[in-house]
Amino acid sequence: MNTFHKNILWTERSCLLIFYLQTTVNCQFIYALCIVSLNRLVAIVYQSKTFFRTKKWTIICISIQWICGILIPLPQFASSLTQCFKSGLEMNYQIYVLFINGILPAIFLAITNSIIFKFVRRSTRRVLPMKNEHQTPITTLNHRDARLLKHMLFMFAAFFCGWIPIYIIRVIYWDGKGISNVAYHGVLMLPIVGLVIDIVELFLYNHELRTYFIDKVCNYRR
Prior knowledge:
Structural class: mainly alpha
CATH superfamily: Rhodopsin 7-helix transmembrane proteins
CATH architecture: Up-down Bundle
Strand content: under 5%
Distance between the termini: 43 Å
Largest sheet: none
Radius of gyration: 22 Å
Number of helices: 9
Shape: globular
Number of strands: 0
Helix content: over 70%
CATH class: Mainly Alpha
Mean pLDDT: 81
Number of domains: 1
Order of helices and strands: HHHHHHHHH
Low-confidence stretches: 136-140
């Protein structure tokens, strides 16, 4: 639509709305990773608190994610409509989008994951003097959480490398000058590549889903 039917896609009603929806979708994805990281943090640090393992806590987390993903991008609607038709959002709003989609989640994930790793390392050191039969459950827990954290960080890196270059280019060339149309459309391929990588990573990480598909394929061949 953007390449062949710009006049239909970009109207006074849709211009800012399209940028808002794009930012909202990206926020929902990256904030979901933040919520998962927060859940792992409270599950590890506050193991004795049953509230953090209830459906109520899960609903609260999902609600916070959706509310933040919907409300935080709203300031984009204050951007100039004239500038929106020319090249997108104004520079200060491009910086804002870069902050809420890239910098803020990166800081949040760095803090939560650092706390998790420090807590796990401290717990492991306390377990070392104990007998071997008491060490195994803690070690298994650490390996599982470490694998989950690596999985989340990889997905964040794929998202970051896919979308953040576009936001940086929009900040640097916010007036639409200084970058060719071919180069810009080339950069637009990065989110697609990042999305494919995340889908493959999710498939490889989810052992149950992978086993299900393998069984289906084997049964179909029979």
